[in-house]
Amino acid sequence: MTDIVWETVTYNGKRIRLTEAQMRHTAVFHPESMEHEQLLKETVTMPSVVAAGGSANVRILYRFYQRTAVSRKYLAVVIRELDDEGFILTSYFTDRIRRKIIWKRAS
User: Fold this and answer.
1) Structural domains in the chain (count)
2) Could you read off the pLDDT of 57-83 as tens digits, one per residue?
3) Is residue 106 domain-resident?
4) Model pTM?
């Protein structure tokens, strides 16, 4: 069993976890996003936009931040949703939303 680093509840009530394995993956490929653990949790619990991922149960949660390790950017957190739970696949900073929006926070 993989060790859980932390767990939180998403904008739509699903329990999402970050495992050590996925944290290591993200630290290797997108280390700048791991410098912002609190922003990661905030993006998962209160995204501005949710976009469709590459498969039916993958979602990309976006939240824009004025200040990050790489300037003004969206933090994108890619999650895989299972029934009432799921896990973070990776996270990264980006300058725009690249996928089809499926949910948007009301203004």
Assistant:
1) 1
2) 999 999 999 988 778 999 999 999 998
3) no
4) 0.91
